[in-house]
User: Which sequence fits this backbone?
């Protein structure tokens, strides 16, 4: 469909491929392979296959292609490749571009596994990585060199919610000819304008808001057709990180409701953050949608909203944070985000446990910090639950 239509409309219809039965809801092609009419036909297909000609589900599948086309349309990207998880997307995007001797500049505040890929894996293959404070444009400028191949960051960092200025960092990167790879999970495809802001490659964990109901793992890499088909696809299809057709079908249906869900979650996140701001038991309420957040103006410029995740710093460290978590009756203790259920995480002892104390200190991952992914419950019920649990501290 034409991109003159609103994203909500495109999220319902774009990418649809109907079989000979004319089904309304997208079909689940749960097949790894495809039958050829003849040996010559198979030979031809392997030589060159069109957009609706499939060979093997690791290379592509009609249900997966529907998901890829629909998310590419929503993001305003030329093309997309769906992956088995968000980490398959992050590692595939980086590894397909980089080779020994290349230089990468990355923001320091990252999801634990992203940090592991950059710090432990890429360096093992001779890639040099420089980490900077993502909010400090002078630090980016000083670190990006003529031989820098990739600049990588989470546009809103997990779990500290630092916002990185996509437009400004992209300008600095492009000046030196580096590609900008953005992990855009916290912005969600609903609030993202990353391509018009200068990002070259955008990565999502579809496990989060795209599924949105905590069922399956998935990821997606978006970019130019040249990049997706020329650089990424050969890497992904030969190393095996493709999305399963079943998961793609769940994600496709997720895209239909994503805008409604994410808007409702962001509105509730703002209500909850506003209600808890200044609470006597909290040292900090971190939410980019709050006027008091140091990067509020940037967050609004970049995403229009503060997103669906807030961070609470409970006074009294780990013991107090655990008391708060254990006293909740609606919010659940887990580690996903973007789910219909409100999920609370204690990063210092779970997702970011691996980090040395000194690094946690630099990143602001304190012992009292609790990450809160706001779900689809009534905001008033959540505020009552959090307030009562804080009484227990
Ligand atoms: C969850 C997450 C990932 C990894 O996604 P998976 O689907 O769990 O592999 C990567 N980046 C960020 C910012 C995330 O929140």
Assistant:
């Amino acid at each position: 469909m034409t991109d003159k239509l609103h994203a909500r409309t495109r999220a319902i219809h774009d990418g649809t491929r109907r079989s000979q039965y004319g089904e309304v809801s997208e079909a689940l092609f749960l097949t790894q392979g495809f039958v050829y009419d003849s040996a010559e036909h198979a030979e031809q297909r392997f030589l060159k296959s069109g957009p609706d000609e499939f060979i093997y589900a690791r290379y592509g599948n009609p249900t997966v292609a529907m998901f890829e086309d629909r998310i590419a349309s929503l993001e305003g990207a030329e093309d997309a490749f769906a992956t088995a998880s968000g980490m398959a997307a992050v590692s595939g995007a980086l590894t397909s571009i980089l080779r020994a001797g290349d230089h990468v500049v990355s923001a320091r505040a990252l999801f634990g596994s992203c940090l592991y890929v950059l710090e432990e894996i890429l360096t093992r293959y001779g890639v040099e990585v420089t980490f900077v404070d993502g909010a400090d444009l002078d630090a980016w400028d000083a670190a990006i060199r003529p031989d820098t191949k990739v600049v990588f960051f989470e546009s809103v960092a997990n779990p500290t919610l630092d916002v990185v200025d996509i437009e400004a960092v992209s300008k600095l990167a492009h000046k030196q000819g580096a590609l900008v790879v953005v992990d855009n999970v916290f912005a969600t495809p609903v609030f993202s304008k990353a391509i018009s802001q200068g990002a070259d490659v955008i990565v999502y964990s579809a496990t989060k808001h795209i599924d949105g109901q905590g069922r399956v793992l998935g990821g997606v890499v978006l970019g130019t057709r040249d990049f997706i088909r020329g650089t990424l696809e050969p890497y992904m299809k030969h190393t095996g990180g493709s999305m399963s057709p079943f998961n793609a079908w769940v994600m496709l249906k997720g895209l239909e409701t994503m805008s409604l869900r994410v808007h409702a979650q962001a509105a509730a996140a703002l209500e909850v953050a506003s209600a808890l701001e200044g609470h006597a038991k909290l040292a900090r309420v971190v939410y980019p949608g709050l006027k008091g957040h140091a990067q509020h103006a940037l967050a609004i410029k970049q995403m229009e909203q503060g997103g669906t995740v807030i961070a609470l710093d409970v006074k009294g460290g780990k013991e107090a944070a655990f008391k708060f978590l254990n006293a909740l009756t609606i919010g659940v203790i887990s580690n996903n985000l973007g789910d219909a259920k409100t999920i609370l995480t204690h990063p210092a002892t779970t997702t970011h446990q691996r980090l040395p104390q000194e690094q946690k200190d630099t990143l602001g991952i304190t012992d009292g910090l609790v990450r809160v992914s706001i779900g689809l419950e009534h905001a008033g019920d959540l505020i009552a639950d959090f307030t009562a649990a804080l009484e227990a501290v």
Summary: The longest strand covers residues 148-154. The radius of gyration is 21 Å. The mean pLDDT is 96.
